[in-house]
Amino acid sequence: MRLLIASATIFTLAFGSAGFRVRDQLPQKFTNLKILPTDIAPRDLVSIMKQFCSDLNVRCEHCHVGEGNDLTKFDFASDARPTKASARVMLKMVSAINGEHLKTLPQPATQPVTCFTCHRGAAKPATRPGGG
Description:
The chain is mainly α. The protein has one domain. About 45% of the residues lie in helices and about 0% in strands. It has five helices and no strands. Helix 1 (about 1-15) packs across helix 3. The longest helix has 20 residues, at about 80-100. The protein is globular, with a radius of gyration of 16 Å.
């Protein structure tokens, strides 16, 4: 819950203080959703994207084509950025870990794996303590 609050705060600081209303800048219809449900509610999609931003300490342009705070200028459907393809692979991985693998542990995990589990607020997770 703290992560969700923190991500909402970051998003508000990044976009809200500039006078932008995110819901007014979203596409009317989402296209090119390959992992997330095609009928996902706009608020749910925004919530997930905010969580990605928080968990990886990135902004929308990390995965999506566009720059700045005006989301109407973004091409969210574009697959031009390799990080978007990586995000899709990571979503499948997290789903498999939570849906299949954790169930096989002698003592089930009490918390699901999330992006933050590995990334810890970094775009590229550290592969060893204290380093890259």
